[in-house]
Each structure stands twice: as C-alpha cells, then as structure tokens.
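COURSE: Structural Biology Practicum
ASSIGNMENT: Worksheet 4, Part C
STUDENT ID: 0417
INSTRUCTIONS: Below are two proteins. For each, the amino acid sequence is given first, followed by its structure token string. Answer the questions at the end about the second protein only.

PROTEIN I
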Amino acid sequence: MVYSQEMELIDPCFKRFKFNFDVKPSGIILLSGVVQEMIKYYKLKDEVYLHLNYVSKNIFLYRLFSLEGIEMNYTRDVASSFDIRNIPTNSANDHDDLSLVKTLSYYDVVGSFLYLSASFVGKALSKSRKNYKLCNGNSRYWPCSVKWSERTASECCLGFRWKTFVKDNDLTVGDCIKLEVEKDYDNLITVQKI
C-alpha cells in the first residue's frame, strides 16, 4: 500500500469508492468517510462483514455479507440491501438434500474462489475435510480444496481447481448453478448448471 495516495474500493458491480486513509502506529487503518458513504449508497440498515481482496497499489475488490453470511445484493433498486430478492443467488434449499443454488457473479467466474453460504456449509460440509472432488454430473471430476474462514466455523470457499472447473464447464457470469452433497459420498460436490 502507498500511504500518501488515495485508496479505492470496488464492488462486484464496479461501484467505486475513493477515499483517504490514515495508519496509526499500532497498524490500525482508519478509513475516512467511506463507511458512511457506503451505508448511504447501499441503504444498509444492519451490520455487515466487509471482505477485501487486494488487487494492486491501493485498490481493493470488496464484497459485503450479512452477519448470517449472505452476500448482499449490490443493486440500488431494493428496499434493503439484504432484500429477499438476493436469496436465490446464494441460498441453501430448505430440504435435507444438502444443496445450494447460486448465481455466479463476475468474481465467482474470474476469481480463484467460490464463496459459499454459511447455511449450506453448516449443513453439507465437514470442517475436518480440506479436500473435495467437484463433479459436473457427466462423470468428470476435479480435485478441489476448501478454504475455511478463521473467523467462524461456518464460512468457507472452494479454492484449488475452482477456476479450472469454471473454464472446463464454460460457466459465465449470470449462470445459475446447483451444488449438491450426498450424505453417502460426502467428499463429492456435484455442481450443475441449471
């Protein structure tokens, strides 16, 4: 980071926030005014988690999540940023079938990770297991690692080989996928485009 220049935060819909920041001797970074701007822009009413990915000199991509782990809807035409219309893009089914329906964002497709909802992770995946196999339903498999959050036991993302899986299966932004885990084959995650 370059301390004498502005910092820039960019959301999945490319909304940009530029601001100045200060670094205290203890290493704590103080963001000047950007938090209030974001609250106003997204009409946030509740607390959120801010996930930052460093891109380059003072530029970060960010994603916002509710305390329950649901990624927010970045459009401004909703009454609340965590409006019910966001749920189909990252929701675990209410059934006991251990599945998740997710609409792929730009970062899901071009990034190296696929973030999963806390409700799905809590029901379907084992914290003790670090490696899974992704299956596309056509008997093709890709080894995949799961990266667990240090903050909470129910947050994780698919890592190693996710990007290869996306490319090999021609997944694009806006595609809706269904992830399923069967209890008898708990090391296998079936991912199908729906």
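PROTEIN II
(use this one for the questions)
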Amino acid sequence: MQELAQVLLIAIQLFAILDPPGSIPAFLALTEGQDESGRARLARTTTWLVMGLMVLFALVGNYVLAALGISVESLKLGGGLLLLALSLDLVLGSRREESGEDESVVVPVATPLLVGPGTITTLIILSAYHPVHVLLAAVALVSAMAYACLRFSSALVRLLGKTGIKAMSRLMAVLVAAMAVEMIHSALLAWGIAEN
C-alpha cells in the first residue's frame, strides 16, 4: 500500500512537470491537417518516446550523478532553481509553442515540451530516493496520462476551451514552483544553511 502511494505521488509530481495539458495547443498546431487516426498514431509515437526518455533517466540517474561527482543536494539546488525558472516561465505564459512539419511533430512535443530539463532533473533526483520499480510504475502511469491528453486533445479543447487548458497549465506551473522551492529548501537544510 505504501509503494502504491509512492507511485501515485511521483506520478503526480511528474505530471505537473510534464504538463501534458500545456502541450495540447502545440500538439494540435503541429498535427493540423491530420485526421483523428493520424493524430492517434502521433500521440502513440510521442508517448513511447516520452516514456523511453523517462525510463532512461530513471534507470541511469544515480550513475550519472556518481560519474560526474555531483551530490544529490547540489542537483536539488540546481534542479530547484531550474524548475523555479521554468515554472515562472509557464505562469507568465511565455512558453514558446513549437511549429513545424508533420514529420517533426514527435520530437518537439516529446522533448523539450514534455521531457525537458525539469523532468530529467526530477527523475535523476527521484532515482536517488526511490526503488527502480516504483519509479518505473510512476513513469508508466504518467505516460498513460500524457497519452490520454494528446490522444484526446481535440476533445479536451472542445470541453475545456483554450482558456481552460491555459488555466490547467498555469495550475501545473504553480505546483512545479512549490516543488522547486521544496527542493531548494531541502538542499539548503542538508548543508545547514537553512533551518526547518
């Protein structure tokens, strides 16, 4: 039961950082002219790429830290600052929407829109604290949620409207900002710079 709670908590954190609702406008713009089956295929391909990237960083995160001689606290501080900057960018609405041809849809949506530096940093930090099977289960869950957002993007826009999608994206950004501050505070606590 405790592991299930961990999986859900990690999945919520990753969902907030990935912010699939925030990628819907870019996905729709990039797949303009595609029919529903074409969009479904691209949503599937994008999701597999997103999941593959997240699995990679979940598995090799600890080794990357060890190879580079970086402490978890240093990564928390750096990652927290990065996440804070990204979340402010999202809240202020200056996130750049990608555009391009049909064949280049998957890469811009998968990375950097979904799996960007914030996601990578978070996965590496999480890999230092959680068992691999818990991380992989959370990655699978959040990948399924991202797929649902992309696959049913047209329906979500019709249901929530562009304003609703933007509001959801801004809410995710506020959650990411809170997580970033927590990371920074945790690193400062570990170094004895801050007090609890």
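ANSWER KEY EXCERPT:
Q1: Residues 153-190 form the longest helix (38 residues).
Q2: The chain has a mean pLDDT of 86.
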